[in-house]
Amino acid sequence: MKTSDFYFDLPEELIAQTPLEKRDASRLLCLDKVTGEIQHRVFSELPELLREGDCLVMNDSRVLPARLLGARESGGAVEVLLLRDLGGGRWECLTRPGRKTKPGTKLVFGDGELEAEVIEVVPCKAEPTVRSTVFAGLPKGERSDFLVQKCTEMGVHAVVPVEMARSVARADRAQKKTERLARIAREAVIGAGTVITASTKIIDVSQPEPVTYKGYVPPRSVVIPGSYPKKFAAGEYGVPCALIIGQRKESTDTKTSLNDALRDFDVPV
To answer: Is the pTM of the predicted complex or chain greater than 0.85?
Structure first.
């Protein structure tokens, strides 16, 4: 499954640009999860739809219109999204390009009307504490798309394709796919919203009885993307997770040859 499977055309004239004067006159789409029936109603009818024991989630979050377009003092465009006021003229922000905005970088907005300086870089709390790199034999066809998508969903830092003796695909041809694979990785990040964090389910399937971990990978584990079945109101679906399929030998800690490490798992190279 790809995030592109969920793309659809939404005409701009059907997107609400301003709220109605009477807020409770806004349209309300109702889906019966049992029959699949769809009804078009208005928000003023919401109390009629609620039953005892229903869970109503109120979203009181506000969007801060603070997207700044400027430039680095040394040159080059920069985009800054203000997230949280830390006081004293300091803000927690997201910047793009992030690699170009290191501590000490001076930023200019407008015609010099606003100036700022990057004080520190704060790691994203959703990122895994350990960066992992996947070395994989060059897959052919759409298998490379699947590999990049699933590795990205799991929070893998980098996917390095390796041309092996038995690889059908070749590096010179695979180079042409770089731009497409980068797009697939971006889509996977947006679509999944999942990386290996404290809540990620990690299942060790290398033993007769599976063992489940949460956000922890035992040392020398060989991990691959996977999924486990979970029942929802609409049916049973596969939820992304990480699967431990084996343990590396201690001798591989000092190995520099990828082929030697792969041979330990009887992978032909």
So the answer is: no
